[in-house]
Automatic annotation (TrEMBL):
Record-given protein name: Alpha/beta hydrolase
Keywords per UniProt: Hydrolase
GO MF terms, alphabetically ordered: hydrolase activity
One Pfam short name: Abhydrolase_1
SUPFAM superfamilies: alpha/beta-Hydrolases
Keyword Hydrolase attributed: yes
The keyword Chaperone belongs to this UniProt entry's keyword annotation: no
C-alpha cells in the first residue's frame, strides 16, 4: 500500500478504484483514507462494517454519490492502513471519527454508516450533534438492539462455510440465498476486486476479534436516547438481515424523530449493495433535500 501526504483537495473525477491512498495524523494515530468527488461544502463521511478496510467499500455506491459531493472513506484505528490498536468499544471509534473529521478541517459533515459503521455514526450524532448535518444508517441497529450481541454466533458458522466452499463469507452473511440474492452477492464481490493497485491490507485476526468485542458490547449496552438525534435521518436495510436483524432498522426509524425508512425485499444485510443504483438515487435525494 502506498500512502501519500494529505493533498489540498479531493480527486473530483477519479473513480474509487483508482483513488489515491492518503494518510493523516490524528494525535499519535495515522488514519488511512480516500478523498474524492467535487469540493462540496459539506462532505459525506463513510464508516464501514466489522473487519472492513477501504477496499471493502462498494465502488458503485461511492462513485455514484461522488458525482455530486465530496466523499471521505477511512479505515478505523488498527484496521487496514491505519495505525494503532483497534478500539474495544464503539464509543472509542466514534471519538476517533470526531477527531479525524475535525483534523481534516470540516466544521459539518453528513454521515453514512453501514453495519458497525452505523453504530459509530449514531454515537457521533449523539456526542457531537452540531457536527452532523444529515445521517444515513444502513444494515445497522441501536445500542442494545435485538440480536446484535449474537453477531459472532451467527457469523462464525457462515465464515467456516465460506472457507469450505472457497467463497468470501460475505456471500452468505450479506445476501439472501435466493436466486436474486446469490446473483447480487456474486456481482458485489466482483466489484470489490476492481481495484488492482495499491490495495489496502486486510484486518489482522487480532483487530477482527477486538472489533467483534466492541460489537458485542454495543449489543449489550443500555439503549441510548435516540430522540436526541434531531437531524434528518435515513434508515435502510433488507427484509432478511441475519447479522443485525431487520427489526432493528424499524426500531431506529421509530425512535429517531421523523426518520425515513427503506426496506428492500428479498435482501439481507448488504441490501444497499444489492440495490446500489436505487440506494444511490434515494440517498443523493435525501442528502440534497432542503431543511
Amino acid at each position: 500500500m502506498t500512502l501519500s501526504e494529505t493533498p489540498p483537495h479531493a480527486e473530483s473525477q477519479v473513480p474509487f478504484a483508482l483513488a489515491a491512498n492518503q494518510s493523516i495524523m490524528v494525535g499519535d494515530t495515522a488514519f488511512a483514507y480516500r478523498d474524492m468527488g467535487p469540493m462540496t461544502e459539506v462532505p459525506l463521511v463513510l464508516f464501514n462494517h466489522w473487519g472492513a478496510v477501504l477496499d471493502n467499500f462498494d465502488p458503485r455506491i461511492i462513485d455514484g454519490l461522488a458525482k455530486t459531493r465530496r466523499i471521505i472513506a477511512s479505515d478505523y484505528r488498527g484496521i487496514g492502513g491505519s495505525s494503532g490498536s483497534a478500539p474495544l468499544t464503539v464509543g472509542e471509534m466514534a471519538d476517533d471519527a470526531i477527531n479525524l473529521i475535525r483534523t481534516l478541517g470540516f466544521k459539518q459533515v453528513d454521515l453514512l454508516g453501514f453495519s458497525l459503521g452505523g453504530f459509530v455514526a449514531q454515537d457521533i450524532a449523539l456526542k457531537a450533534p452540531g457536527l452532523v448535518r444529515r445521517l444515513i444508517l444502513t444494515g445497522t441497529g441501536p445500542a442494545g438492539g435485538t440480536g446484535i450481541e449474537n453477531v459472532g454466533k451467527v457469523s462464525w458458522p457462515l465464515m467456516i462455510k465460506g472457507l469450505v466452499h472457497l467463497r468470501d463469507p460475505k456471500f452468505y452473511l450479506f445476501f439472501t440465498q435466493t436466486k436474486n440474492g446469490r446473483q447480487a452477492a456474486s456481482d458485489f464481490l466482483k466489484r470489490l476486486k476492481e481495484r488492482k493497485k495499491d490495495r489496502i491490507k486486510g484486518s489482522t485476526p487480532s483487530a477482527f476479534i477486538r472489533q467483534l468485542k466492541a460489537i458485542t458490547a454495543w449489543g449489550k449496552q443500555a439503549p441510548q436516547d435516540l430522540a436526541r438525534i434531531q437531524i434528518p435521518t435515513l434508515v435502510a436495510n433488507g427484509d432478511s438481515d441475519i447479522m443485525v436483524p431487520s427489526e432493528n432498522s424499524i426500531a431506529l426509524a421509530q425512535r429517531i424523530p421523523n426518520a425515513q425508512l427503506i426496506i428492500y425485499e428479498d435482501a439481507g444485510h448488504g441490501a444497499i449493495f444489492q440495490h446500489h443504483a436505487d440506494f444511490v438515487t434515494k440517498a443523493a435525494a435525501f442528502l440534497d433535500a432542503k431543511g
